[in-house]
Design goal:
alpha/beta; 27% strand; Rossmann fold; 10 strands; 4-stranded antiparallel sheet; globular; single chain; 6-stranded mixed sheet
């Protein structure tokens, strides 16, 4: 049985500060995420949760401190390197899906692989496999506006998994969904983690944290205030 210390570190933040003018978004935050973890980050609005996610994704840079993902110093990369890094190592799922409105579901998913140089036919084949695994293959030729919220989020998850990322980031993945669709997305995240996908989830939803995460990180004032195992809900 693999111990925590034997699992490789996927994300390491060390004394990360992020300042916007006089405002401190992150104030010396340190955090490790190991392979196979499902980490839920919670805390009040403005505590730095989204800034943390943006740092890990390379969408923002620290004012000081280091952010490493799979051993890569994210803050030291230029924009071209960051774009390639994200495409190959990080999948992202957003609250409002961020699908391309004028592409059908299949092409929304396949595009993620085509941007890394995968031939279109091969990309579409894998995209269809993912849509099938996520239960939305029958909707592959439908445009986002004709899909339900739950279907759009499943398409977004398929897109995020397209390049087999080491890390899946999710920013309020159930925030725009009704309760039934939210439950389905929670089940999907649980299934992904059970087959080894590393998850870092920002959420306001205690039920999502309790069901999907094995670690709960609570933030306050730009730093980790407490870490625990999520309380199990009935």
């Amino acid at each position: 049985m693999t111990t925590d210390q034997e699992r490789p570190v996927v994300v390491r933040l060390d004394a990360v500060h992020k300042e916007y003018g006089d405002a401190k978004a992150l104030d010396g935050l340190s955090l490790e995420v190991r392979a196979g973890d499902a980490v839920a980050v919670m805390g009040p609005s403005g505590c730095g949760k989204s800034t943390l996610l943006n740092m890990v994704a390379g969408l923002d840079r620290p004012t000081s401190g280091t952010v490493e993902v799979r051993g890569h110093d994210v803050g030291a990369m230029n924009e071209t390197q960051l774009a390639l890094f994200r495409r190959h190592h990080v999948g992202m799922v957003f609250q409002f899906f961020n699908l391309i409105d004028d592409l059908p579901a299949l092409d929304n998913v396949a595009l993620a692989a085509q941007l890394t140089g995968t031939p279109a036919r091969q990309a579409r084949r894998r995209a269809l496999e993912l849509l099938d695994e996520l239960g939305v293959a029958a909707r592959r030729n439908h445009y986002p506006a004709t899909l339900s919220g739950g279907e759009r989020q499943r398409v977004a998850v398929a897109r995020a998994l397209m390049n087999r990322p080491a890390l899946l980031l999710a920013d309020e993945p159930t925030g725009a969904l009704d309760s039934r669709a939210g439950e389905q997305v929670m089940d999907l995240l649980i299934d992904l983690n059970q087959i080894g996908q590393t998850l870092l989830i920002v959420t306001h939803d205690p039920a999502l944290a309790a069901r999907c995460a094995n670690r709960l990180v609570e933030m306050a004032d730009g730093r980790v205030a407490r870490e625990s195992a999520p309380a199990v809900t009935a």
